[in-house]
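Exercise 3.2. Students should predict the tertiary structure of the chain below and write it as structure tokens, then compare their answer with the key that follows.

Predict this chain's 3D structure.
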Amino acid sequence: MSTKTDENTSIGATPEQFGIGMRFSIHPHTNDFVEVILGALADVETAGLTEGLVIETDEVSTYVGARTAPAEQHLTAYLCAVIVAASRRSRGAHIVTHVLFSRGCPGEVSCDLAVTGLPTPEPVELDPVGIRAAAQWSLYPLLDGGSDAGDHMGHIEAAIAAATQRGTAASPAHYATKLTGDLADVLATAVDAWVQVGTGVAHVVTHLSVSVGSPSPADA
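Answer key:
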């Protein structure tokens, strides 16, 4: 992993230069899962939510890279719309989505951590979609030997406190925090926390496993 400094790490770097994106896999628990997945992706593209995004799908997952600001808003709106479209197309079947968001690393074989002037975007704004979601959420500040390299739990605890105040943090779990609420608010909670940590830590990753339409009884 390189730590070179060049013009791409100056203040005002674009989302593409800074490295803001996600990788997700969506799993509809229904026999026609192929039509549900492909149809949901097509629905979101038709709705115009792919503008400013680079999207690459392979046999494992879909990579979505943000190229223009507001990157976090674009990514979250896209992901939420895909899950909503899949739920609609599957007539409310159980759908699980695994998503990893990463910021501060353009990511192929090198990662530039010599970033100055870390971006401070506005919070994500999504209208409620009327679908209850439960998610297991983990946050990873990759401090990479910085001055506060031993304080990763401080960042995580502050993020959990913010989610609790927001009303979406339901309970702690092994290696994760459970979030519940409207799908839009659950996703926005995780993304806003990821962004907040990213205002002080150059490279931050957050991971969610999001469930909608689960046959298991809700416990929170």
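Discussion points: The chain has one domain: 7-212. Strands lie at 20-28, 53-57, 62-66, 95-103, 132-141, 169-173, 176-182, 204-212.
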